[in-house]
Each structure stands twice: as C-alpha cells, then as structure tokens.
C-alpha cells in the first residue's frame, strides 16, 4: 500500500524545482500512480502537480505532511516512461522538471486552481427550514442581502468566486462578511481548461415481450412516444438525441416521457472532437518498392522485428520515395502490435502530408496540429493515451505522444530548425526522439534530402556522445523523373544590363512561357530578407518599440504597428513623428511587393499568395493549396510555406527571388540553411512527367552553398562546410551553450554579467577544463563574452550573453547550471534572470 507520494508542483521557481512529499489519502491509494495529476495544498494555495514516485514508508514525521487534495484524472496523463524522460530533459537542457512535464501534456490539462464558495453545513440546514417557512437562529439575524446570497449558493451547491462576484458585483463586502462569520467558506479545486465533450444519446430500455407490451400500452395520445420506441427498437442501437428528434420530428419532451416510463434511456456519452471528420481521404495501398527502397526497408524492418533500438539517417533526394518508406515501415510496426510517431516541421504539416497518412491508415491516425482548437487537440491526445490510435503525426511536441509500446519514431526533414523549441524547455525533438526510442527499444528514422551537419557528422564519425545513426541513401526518383536543371542568375549582371526589376530576364521569360503553356510556377521568397517596418522616406525614421530595441511590424488588418516580442501596439502614423513629413510609409512584406510587381509585368496573371497574412485563418492554408491544385492560379507565391513537401504535377518552374538574403546573417549555420532551403525549393519542380527548371536569383553567385545546391551536390557542400566548421570550432566539432542574462538596469546587468562570466571561468579552470579550443586536446572549453545580445533589449529588459563552446566528454551543462544558481544566490536580485540554451539553434 502506497502511503506517500513525491510530487512536482506547478510553481515555477528555482526553489520549488524539486519533489515535495504528500500523504496519500486511503481513498486514493489504489488510484495514484507515477504520472498522476493531482491537486495539492502548497502554502495557502491549491496547485496542480505530478506524482513522480510512490513510497510505502513515510520518510519524515507524517504529522507535518499534508495529504493530496484531489486526483484529477482516473488514467494518469503521463505514463511513467515520460516522467523518466522529463528527468532526462531536465538534466540535458538545464530546465526545471515542471517545465518538462508541462511540455508533455496538452494545454487543456494545464489546470489552474479555482476558488469555490460553499455554505457551511449548519447554515445549510437552517436555510432548508427557511424555505419550508420556518425562520430561526442566526439565519434570522441575517439581513435581506445576506439571506439572498446564502440561498443562492445553497441552491447551486457551490459556485466559483469569479461567478459570485460577477453576479453580485456591489455586494463583495457582504460576501466577505459572510466568509468572516464562517457562514460561507472557501475551498480550492483544480479546473481544467476544456471539458470532455458529450452528446445525449437515446436507446430502447426494453426488448422482446416487454417491448411488445410497452408498445401495446400506448393510447392514442401517446402516439408519438410509440413511434419513438418503434424506431429505437428497429435501429437496435443507441442514437444521438439530435438524430431521433430530426428524423421523427418529435420534441425532446416526448423522448423524455418515454424515458420516464422506463422504456428508454437517455445518457450523456463522451465523444471525441474529430477535426477531420468532414474530410474524405482517398485510401491508398502500399506501392511496390523500388530496389533502393527495398534495401532501406530491409534494414529498418530487421531492427523493428528484433525489437531493437536503432537510429537511421535516411538521406534521400527530394521525391526519392522517403514518405512511402515511412508509410510501409509504420505499417510493419503496427502489425507487430506497436505504435509509431511521425514528426514533421510545423510548416509542412500541410494537408498533403496529413492526407498521405490518413489515406493509408485512416482512423488509426491522430493528428496533433497547432491550428486545432484546444479541445480538438485534447481529444486527439486522448485517442493516443487511451490506445484508440496507433499512429500520431504532428510537429515537435508530438514526440511526447503517450503511446504505451512505441516501436518507431519517424522525423521527416530532420534538419529543420523548428524541431528546436525556443522557449523553455528548450529541447530539440531529435535528441528527445532518440532518448525516447532508447527507453522503448524502438527505431528512429531521421529523413532528409539535406541532413543536418550534426546528424551527418555523427553518422560518419560514429563517435558522437548521444547518437550515431546509420546512413541509408536513396538517389533516384521512382517516377523516373530527373532532378530539375538549376540556373544561377547573377542579379548584379542584370543591374549592369539596366534591369532594375526584381525579376531577371530569364525568370521573366520562364514565367511567361509557363502561362502560355498552361503550366504552373512556384515563386519562393526568403522571408528573413524582408520586413514589414514603417519608415519615413524624408528623415529615415523607423517606428520602433519603446520597450524593445527592434522595429515594429505593420499589421494591415488592424492598421496598427505591433511589437513581436512584447505585444506593444500603436496606431500606424500618417505623418512622421520626427519630422512631420507625410512620406512615411509601410514597406510591405516581400510577398506583397512581388505580387504587385507580377501583376504589373503580366496583366491578368493569377497569383496565389501564401504567407503569414493570407494563412492566418483556420483552413486558409488548405484552401489556397487546393485552389492551386485545381489550377486556379498560374503562380504560387510564398515564403518557407511553399518550400516544403508540396507535390503538384504541373509545376515545371521554380523561381527563387533572392537566394542570398539569409547568407548575410551573423549565424554560423547560414550557409547550411541556405543550401537546405534552395535544395528543398528546387525539389518542387518537375516531380512528375513534365521536366522541371529552377532559377535561382542571387547577388552572390560564387557562394559555395549556391553552387553546390544548383548541382544537387550534398556531399560536396558538406565537405566544404565541415572544413569551415572545423577551423572555427563550431558544431559539429564543438558544442555550444548560450547563456542570456537580463535585467531592467543596464549598469547593474553589466556588472552581473561580468560577475557570472568570471565565476564560470574560475570554476572551469578549477576543473582543468578551461582553455583554448585551438590546442589539439580531445577536451577543451572556452567562454566567450559577456557581450550585448543581438536583440539587446526586450520588454524593457537589457540582455547580455555568454557563449560556452566546448568539445569532448565534459558535463558543461551542469557547470553552467550550478554557476547560474550560485550567481543568483549570491546576487539576490529579483530582477536578474538567467536563461540557458543548450545546443542553441537561433543565435539571433
Ligand atoms: P519524398 O518523401 O522522398 O519526397 P515521396 O515518398 O513523396 O518522396 O515520393 C515521390 C513520388 O514518388 C510520389 O508521388 C510517390 O507516390 C512516388 N513513389 C514513391 N515510391 C514509389 C514506388 N515504390 N513506386 C512508384 N511510385 C512511388
Ligand atoms: Zn521623418
Ligand atoms: Zn516590444
């Protein structure tokens, strides 16, 4: 019998990042498990928490230990392996346990305590008698206002504080008084954000002889009731109330009378919100594997069949049939009675991808999509937790899909940066996937046409501390179509020839040709190169956020300017606040400007624009793609959204408007990202019978990332890029930890950041780790900074950063975590925040 539970409470602070002990009340003892969600008293509040371990013995004086208040779910939302995974995450990413646990459950279950008001027992009795006309005791002493409130609460059983103060806004004092006198009292309970959805169903409660008797008993007046019963008997299964009412055109009263007589039952039955219920997915069958696919499939299924843990890097050119391999491997996994997770970048969680999985596995698939409502997401998650589906597809957080017997995790486009979460817990889904698969003895497939240098290097060197995947290659397209021909266009040359348009002559001609032939074009614009700021043409004033050192973004719909970091908003100015000039204007998004230029150059051209503005509404993404597929557009124009996963047979031309906008970013991965993006975009052209062409417009035509991507030459690119990385000691030849310190006052921050950095250096020195990475030692650690962060001020807080760069088997995360804790303890400044980003992806 478990007597005590250790609970991680939902109180985010450094001091509370440890388990707290609670007694298990006898009534709950059979129900509480590791992973259970509970409401527990904490200080003077009730908070949500997760049970992380159970104990038969009491470790300390139990009189000081408080019992658990409530158990919030019958089935624990977290299986115990996820609780273990959270502990691993907390070590690996220096994050708190609670932040790791919260990342694993749907937001619907992030309950908050509600305060409920009840009437004290003795006063309840009195009120009952009052309603019978007997008035006495303290009740008689209450004024009219008090009595009304007590009667109201008594009638409702209990009400929330929020509800009560909304109903009696001018009687807060009266309510406080009643609380003070002990006539009312307060309790707290955790309230979830969404409820399970139910529908009323009706079923016959009689059968056989009894049914005959019942039918015979209805006189003429009860003719409608008789009809309902006949119908229920005929169907022989529960029906939704709605269906009964609409089919028979009867009222709910009729059905209720039938139920009152005991001939039918009405029940609330739990249902799952299904975001895809109105969509039809065409069923597909496995294709006969090509020889390349066969090789890959054999490796994968051998591992699956043996119940072994294994990581595979599936490097296959765009259109080489990777997705088909995923589908067939998942099918094998399901047939072995195990489950599979498919991770895709949020951006490519397009209808096309969902369609392929739904088409093959139908209702066995749950889709976890950020565009779903909180309720829909909760229900998809419950299908997984309750074992009603075998496959989960979703963006990075789907790596936590609570399957009981996970056999396979597929990560498509494994190089995508969106697999790294930029908020706490700052985890990378690839590393989490490998760890989860290790727990379950499961296989991992990392698929990409352009694997990340980290994964590729890990596979090649077989020495990475975390995982060493096996490389599987696919170089051909099953359709027999060839990779498209890629032309690099030097935009400096265009300018010299007098062409000032954003379209080169070649691309212009290419688009014209496609319109003529009735073929389609995809135009890609790197979003990062353009912004949507407001600038004065006369004096150069740029509207900036007063709290953060960044420019404000113009929002067309609301005609205001907003800060993307703190949410500050202000109406768009019509004259410059600095010089009163009227030439202050909004520099449209890149895509809007390209759209404008296209209509000027090609009158009557049909452009489908896909960017943040046009896809913000639910379902807009799907509609736009369907319109393009139905050939209602000549050109699909967009940002990253058009680069991934799309497969349209009539697209024969892809144009990249400005390939190098990302190359100038101060990020050591900018060449890699450019190479990946160009390769992806180029892969959209000529995927079927018609051959494809790609035009890459650039001001840096000699850059190796552009040259190698134009030749579809991943290996040459990697060779050259790895050389740069090795020289500069960047990943994969080192690992990074980015520490950002922030404070409201700049001079204070400066001092604290110096303090932190020297403490860190001192500790590293004492461990014998600190030194120059240029020395040829297998282990080394260097600390850069402190320097102002690339975004030096956000939400009125100044930011400084230190970068820890190290190689070898050093536990640098613990070093940084302990130094950060020591600094906080020593400085005791409530305004100071230290954030740790292990293996950072965004250096901006
Ligand atoms: P990738 O995921 O590598 O981009 P896909 O799986 O989308 O590639 O395959 C590209 C195209 O080739 C798709 O239209 C797909 O239906 C087709 N395809 C894949 N495998 C086969 C096969 N074994 N036989 C015939 N066609 C195939
Ligand atoms: Zn001005
Ligand atoms: Zn701001």
From TrEMBL:
Q: How is the cofactor bound?
A: Binds 2 zinc ions per subunit.
Q: Residue limits of the Helicase ATP-binding domain? A: 303-469
GO MF terms here are: 3'-5' DNA helicase activity; ATP binding; ATP hydrolysis activity; DNA binding; zinc ion binding
UniProt catalytic activity: Couples ATP hydrolysis with the unwinding of duplex DNA by translocating in the 3'-5' direction; ATP + H2O = ADP + phosphate + H(+)
EC top class, as a word: isomerase
Per the record, its GO cellular-component terms are: primosome complex
Q: Where does Zn(2+) 2 bind?
A: 545, 548, 563, 566
What InterPro entries does the record tag this protein with?
Answer: DEAD/DEAH_box_helicase_dom, Helicase_ATP-bd, Helicase_C-like, P-loop_NTPase, PriA, PriA_3primeBD, PriA_3primeBD_sf, PriA_C
What is any one GO biological process for this UniProt entry?
double-strand break repair
Pfam families, per the entry: DEAD (PF00270), Helicase_C (PF00271), PriA_3primeBD (PF17764), PriA_C (PF18074), Zn_ribbon_PriA (PF18319)
Essential cofactor(s): Zn(2+)
Quote the record's binding site residues for Zn(2+) 1.
536, 539, 576, 579
Q: Which domain of life is it from?
A: Bacteria
Q: Which residues form the Helicase C-terminal domain?
A: 571-723
The role this protein plays is: Initiates the restart of stalled replication forks, which reloads the replicative helicase on sites other than the origin of replication. Recognizes and binds to abandoned replication forks and remodels them to uncover a helicase loading site. Promotes assembly of the primosome at these replication forks.
By its UniProt entry, which HAMAP family does this protein fall under? PriA
Q: Which family does it belong to?
A: Belongs to the helicase family. PriA subfamily.
Name of protein? Replication restart protein PriA
**Organism from which the protein derives:** Paenibacillus lentus
Q: What is this organism's lineage?
A: Bacteria, Bacillati, Bacillota, Bacilli, Bacillales
Q: Which gene encodes it?
A: priA
